[in-house]
Amino acid sequence: MQKSTGDVPRGMRTASFRVSSLAFCLLVAAAPAPGQGLRVDGAPAALATLLARARAASPCSREPRATAEATLARLRLGDPAGAAALWAAPIDGPDAAQWDAIAHFWYLRATGDAATVRARWPRLRRGLEQTVADADPPPSFAAGALQAHARFAFAALGERLGEPTGATQSWRERALQVWLELERQTWQPGRGHYRPLPTNGALRLPERPDDSVLAPAAAGWLVATGDRFEGHLRSALPALLAAPVADARAAAWQLAAAAQLGERAHLDAAWQRLPFDVRGAAHGAVLDAALFALTGLRLATGAGVDEHGVRLRPWLPPDVRWLRCDDLRGEGASLDLELTVRSGALEPDELGEAALASTVGSRRLRATVHLRATVDQRPRTILLQGPTATYVVPMQPGDRITRSLPCP
Fold first, then answer.
1. For residues 274 and 255, is the Cβ–Cβ distance under 8 A?
2. What contacts 321, CB < 8 A, 6 or more positions away?
3. Span 209-246, pLDDT tens digits
4. Measured by CB atoms within 10 angstroms of the end CB, which terminus of the chain is less buried, N or C?
5. How many Å apart are CA 369 and CA 310, to the nearest integer?
6. Nearest to 9 by CA among 133, 165, 169, 151
């Protein structure tokens, strides 16, 4: 699995593995016209239903996690204005300041809209400083990872906004202090995954994972010592896929973990468990996981994760042979992605692709990427990744590439 270390210190890695009273609700018109928001053709009926419901007029919860997930939904649907409006006024509740910082980091990474984030910077700083001042030891692995994620995201936001280096470095150090202590209390070498609850110095028997240990990765926290986070997902996910799924959010976390790992067996299993008919606050998590799985484009991201390119690691469910997603948004870019399943002998347009030399007759995914536009009119590096091959292609706005990804 490709890794991007960003500014993480040696030994720590990230696996590459989002006012008026209306601003308090997710009120969305009918599906946007082509070029003005996400359009998906060839989608399974269940996914089409999920997309339709996400676009439909429906008030969203003001609970912080649900609002952050709704941010992802708006960004996925190509509605950055709707995403920004969700946080136009402060949100109350536990962890609100932390989700505020994380959602704004997602928003800035996806849209490149620094002006909106800069206008809210004083609020973000005050909220997080107060949270740190009042912080108790985290009661769970997920809560501790959220604390570290928010601090790291805030430091990365500061860097992108040109804040003094000393201030951003201080927040990064706070994040690492939280995380290293959390690792000390939750890592289980014998099981290869983090335990759901810190030991707090007590001797405790090894613990099986629960779905909460996948929540940090679904939110973009992929930092760990060495390769622990990848190992954590590889160890915890199969055990959770073998047990009944608790609820819609847990199913979304499982699919996001499977998409991060990029292993087809896990993706197939997790996709079958996803509740596409979900209603209520969890719809944002479900939509984000579904589109992350299909495209490999991560919007719930963290500091140091794929900072220097747009990573696409596409996958299609077993019953889907063709899919087209127009106006995907990420890293300040708009792009189209078309996927077609091929098998048998190589076709004439594939004969020059070295990655296919040893896969004659194998199943493969033919992917076309069209970079529509970028917010700064500058090129983007596209990382088109399959199980055994990765294409790294600098693209100018308007460029189009087509490649085949072997799917052994």
1. yes
2. 340, 341
3. 999 999 999 999 999 999 999 999 999 999 999 999 99
4. C
5. 11
6. 169
